[in-house]
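lol so apparently i was supposed to do this last week
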Amino acid sequence: MDRRFVVIKEHFEKAAKDFDKHFIRFAPGYEEAIEALVSAIPFSGGGRINVADLGCGTGNIAAAVLKKYPNARISCIDLSERMISLAKAKLCGFKNVEFHAGDLRGYKFTRKYDAVVSSLVLHHFEGKDKELLYKKVYGCLKKGGVFCNSDITRGSTAYLQDMYIEKWVEFLHKGCSRAEIKNTLKNHKREDRPALLMDELKALARAGFRDIDVVYKRYYFSVYGGVK
Ligand SMILES: C[S@@+](CC[C@H](N)C(=O)[O-])C[C@H]1O[C@@H](n2cnc3c(N)ncnc32)[C@H](O)[C@@H]1O
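anyway here it is w/ S-adenosylmethionine bound
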């Protein structure tokens, strides 16, 4: 595993225990973005849909999917074993949820899915890794299946990027200490590689997706996807 992903894994192993208690203070619009992500899944509520949650963390996205689709079968994948344990505990009342601890970059999808979702994970990927992942996601979807990603996306100009960071910091000041803000920005610089939203949409088109759209945007944070 390359050095950056070793650091990312360590970070999330450490953060796992308090993730649910604290994450909402660090991610503007976290719950609204999850709502947008789940709302973009176009199937009927009772459907026995197959869903993959990429970088499931403590299982918040899978839990939101199960609220709308109680009969869904979900594959939860995450790099961090501790995150997976917490997701297992959160989702223990649902028998159709399976868990895989491992790096998405080497993950081989063995099922065909109606929906693949991901929240605040894929900004860790760049270049070929991202292109390959989008192709793999396309490959594991059924025809008519959807991919929806909630993530950080960079501003198209230096002005917009600075403004997005300012707005994020403004938000952080509402719930975080100065030390937490400093640490968040340090981790962001070290671990994250957000892409331009337009480049993300083009990468989805190159992977084969159609009907690509942006369903939600709040400065630095976007929810977007496409249909196979
Ligand atoms: C910010 S958390 C988001 C968790 C969850 N998706 C949510 O929105 O609540 C990012 C998650 O991505 C996982 N992650 C990062 N890189 C990964 C990779 N290469 N493969 C699998 N999981 C990864 C981390 O372990 C962490 O649990």
